[in-house]
C-alpha cells in the first residue's frame, strides 16, 4: 500500500485558506482504518464539529496523509523521573525501544519531555512528507499509533497520541490559528510589560481594559482577585456574588491569574478553552479568531434566504457562501447557528457559487425544504432537493442531473415555487425563454421526495403565445387552493399583455387575458406585479406599480374575481402616507396579521435619504408609514437587500431580514419599523457587547 | 451600524412630505389616461388569441410524453456520483505558454536574530494578501521600498506539552520549551519574485505590541504604519542563492521556474 493523501475538508485554493496537514506515525498498512477513524474523530467530528471551528470550517482545508509504517505502533522511551515529573532536567533514560515507523517519533509519556520526542531523522522525514503531500501547510497534526495519553504542540504543529481528545487540540489550534495565550495559572506574580496577546492583560482599569466592550457595566472590575498569591490558583468570581445566569465561559470580566502566573495578570473569563480546553472559546478569544479568519472564510451576508426549516413557525436563515451553507435558527428575536457545511452535503450536493436556492415546503411536513439549482459551475445543470436531516441540518434527498424526465435543464431556467395541485406540497413552475428556439414552460410536481413533469408547454400556453420577455408571478387567483400562474409581457408585442392561467393541478387554462389595458389601468412595459390576497377573501389579488412610464408613479390594487380582475384603488403619485417615486421597490407581506396581504416598500434612489415603509391594506386601500435613513441602528443604504419573513413566529408576515456584504439585521413592523437585532460580519449573540 | 451611507450630492427632493403633490418624475411623459395609448416602438405584432402550434424541429427539447417517467429520483444505493466539473478550455496551438499564476512558499529559519531560506516551493493558484495585522508576530517582504508580502505568525518558537489529564500536581498546564530556532512560512506572489529580484528581497519578522488589529496601506512597510511598539525579531537582507544549502538552492530555482 503506497503512501497517499486525501483532502477531507475542501474549502478552496490553498493560497486562500488555512491548510491543515494530518500525518500518521506508527500506522502499518493494516492500521490505516484506525488512523482514518481517529482523524475523523479528532478533527471532523471533534475540533470542526464544535463551536468556533464548526462555524468557520470554510476557512480551512484538511489534508489527511496516509503514511505506511513498516511497524505498527511507535518507538518507546522510558525515563526515570526521580519523583519530580515536572522537572525534566534530572531525568535519566531507562530504556529506548525503537520501531521502524514513517516518521520515527518516540513516545515517552513524560510531561516534562513533551510526552514524546523526535527520533534522529524525524525532522527530515516530516518535512519530506509535507513537501510531497501538502507543500503549503499552515498547521500540522501528527497522530502517533500509541494508546497512552500525550501531546506536544508549538509552531503550528501538534503531535498527539490515540489517547488524546479533541478538546486539547482545539486549545492548541487557538495558539496556532489565533495566537491566543494560555490562561493556565501557576504560583508567581507577573511583573512584565502589558502582554501582546488579546486574552491577557495586566491592566485592571475598566475604562482602558482591552476587552472592555465585552464587560457588562454591572460586573465588578476586577472580578476575581487572588487573595493568596503564590498558591497557583486561577481565581473565579469572588468580588461579590455572580449574578443569576452567570456563565463562566461566556460572561467576561477581569480574573486574576493567567499565563503561568497567579497574580499581577488577568484573563477575560473564569474558564475559557485557553484554560480548561473543554469549554468553548470566551468572547475575547472567539472574536479574535473570527476577526483573523473572517477574510479567509470568505463569509458574507450577500446570499440569504428565509425559511422555517424546523417547522416551529419561526422563519430561520440560510446563508450561502461559495461552497458552503449555514443555517441559523430563530428563537423569535435572535439567530443561532445550528448547521454549517462546506463543499458538500450528505447525499452529495456539492455547493458552488452559482447555486440558486428556492425555499418551500415541498413535502407538506410543516418544515421548509430547499431546492437548489446550478446551471453555471458544472459541465451540466443540476437540481437537488434538500430536506431536514433530523439533526438541525439538511441532506440531499433527490438530485437530477441535466434533466427531469420531460424537462431538459438549461442555463436560464427560471423557477417559481407554487403548490399548483393543491396537495399541500409546493411544486415548481419552470420557464425558459431564451436557451431554445422556442420558449418552454414546465409544471414540476413534487411527490415530497422528488419531482415529475406533469405538463409542458412548448412555444405557447392556452391563449398565450410565449416569448422571451414573459415575466411570471404565482398566486391562487381562483381561490381553489391551487396556485395559479400570472404572466406579463410588456416588451415583445405591440401592446403589453397580462394573462391569468388557472391551474387544475396538471395543466393550465387561460382564465382571462388582458390586452393593453386592465380595468382602470393602462398597461405599460414598466409595470411591476405583486401577488397577494389584499382583501382576505382567499383569492390572490394583484398590486401593479409603474414608476417608469408615466410622468408620475402609479400603484393599482386589483381584486381577483376568480376569473378576472377589478380595480379597487389606484394611487396616482401619492399613497396615503407615502409619496411614490420612480424607483420604489415592493415586497408582499402581512404586516398586521389580519390575513390581508400588505406591501413593504423601499426607495434608496429618489430622495435625499433612504426610505423603508409599510403599506397596509384594509381590503380596499392602503395606509403607509415609513422610516427614513435609519431603522434603529441600521443605516439604510443602496446595497441593502430585504427578505420578507416571519422570524418572530407571530400571525402574518411582518418581519424583514435586511442584509448586505458585512451587516445583517432583523427588522419587524409593528407597523412602525424597529430593528430587533443587528450583526456585523458574523452572527453571534454575545452575552454582553458586540464585535464592533 | 457605525458608518453612515454616503449621501448623494445630486439635487433631489430631500424628504417625503405629507400632503405634498405627486412628484413629477419626467414632465415630458403623460399621465395615465391622457391621450390614446401608443403602440410600443419597434414592435408590430399583436399576440394572437389562438397561438399557433410550434412545428419546428431545430434547437427544441425532446418531445414531451406525459407520464413517460415519474421523475422520482430514487437515490442510488451507492449515493449520487460527484457532480462533473467543466473541462478546462483546450489551448490552441497559437497560445503562447504562460507563466502559471501562483506564489512561492519559502521555508525560513529564524535563528539568533537572523532569517535564512531553507526551502522553497511554487504553489499554483491565487494567494490571499493580508493587509490586516494583529498584535503579535508578523513578517513582511520588501523589494526595494515596496512591500510585496505580509503574513501573521500566530504561534512560533516554543514547544508545549499537553496538560496531564490525571491532574498530577504541577502538571496542570503546559511544560514549555523555548526553541533556539524555528521555521516560519513566507508566501510571496510569484509575479513579484524572480531570480534577479532575490538579492533585493528583504524579509523581516516583527513582534508588534499593538492594541487592536490594524489595516495596512498596501505597498508601504509595516513598521512605518504600526502604532505602538514594533520590535524586529529577525531579518534577512537579500537572498543570495549561492549561500543557501544545496537543497534549498535547487528548490528555489525550481520554484522560480
Structural write-up:
- The complex is a heterodimer of chains A (692) and B (257).
- The longest helix of chain A has 15 residues, at 283-297.
- Chain A has six helices and 52 strands.
- Chain A starts with a strand and ends in a 12-residue tail after the last strand.
- Chain A is 9% helix and 38% strand.
- In chain A, the strands form 16 sheets. Chain A has a six-stranded mixed β-sheet, sandwiched between helices. A four-stranded mixed β-sheet of chain A has the order 5-4-6-7, with no helix packed on it. Chain A has a four-stranded antiparallel β-sheet with strand order 13-14-15-16, with no helix packed on it.
- With 692 residues, chain A is mainly beta.
- Chain B has 257 residues and is mostly beta strands.
- Helix content of chain B is 4%, strand content 29%.
- The longest helix of chain B has 11 residues, at 246-256.
- β9 (151-154) of chain A pairs antiparallel with β6 of chain B.
Chain pair with largest interface = A-B, 146 and 120 residues
**Unreliable sequence segments of chain B:** none
Written as H for each helix and E for each strand, in order along the chain, the element string of chain B is EEEEEEEEEEEH
Number of strands of chain B: 11
- Termini gap of chain A: 52 Å
Mean pLDDT of chain A: 97
| Class per helix and strand makeup of chain A | mainly beta
**Radius of gyration of chain A from CA coordinates:** 31 Å
What are the low-pLDDT stretches of chain A, counting only 5+ consecutive residues below 50? Answer: none
Shape of chain A: elongated
For the biggest β-sheet of chain A, the strand order reads 1-3-2-8-10-9
